[in-house]
Amino acid sequence: MKHVLLAAALTLAAGAAQAQMWAPNPDLDKDGKVTLSEFQQVQANGILRLDADKDGKITRAEAKPLADRAPNGAAMVDRIWTRLDANKDGVITRAEIDAGAKRRFELGDTNKDGSLSKDEIQALRQNRGRDAG
Prior knowledge:
Blueprint: H1 2-21, H2 36-47, E1 57-59, H3 60-69, H4 73-84, E2 91-93, H5 94-108, H6 118-127
Antiparallel strand pairs: 1-2
Helix pairs in contact: 1-2, 2-5, 3-4
């Protein structure tokens, strides 16, 4: 029974981490636009949920529950490492998360006005996994 409960908890945590990375409304201050700072904060909040020891870094070992439990979890973790582990040291830091979020933000800001509209956010969501960000 304990194993079933643990598996359920890990599945929920993995889902929550993925959902937080793509919060329904990343407009944190509710001003009608998503700034780079807001986008980076939402991305970091989602990915840093994997930081089990709360040291500000994510290791592959910390991401293993997501890889093991979430649908397509291993592919998701591989994609996260490919995109974010810039120095290829096997650890993802907040600076690497912010840099990755900045790349995605710049890809998504198609009209180059410095913010993401609802349509631009939707396009990023639809292209997740297919773009270079």
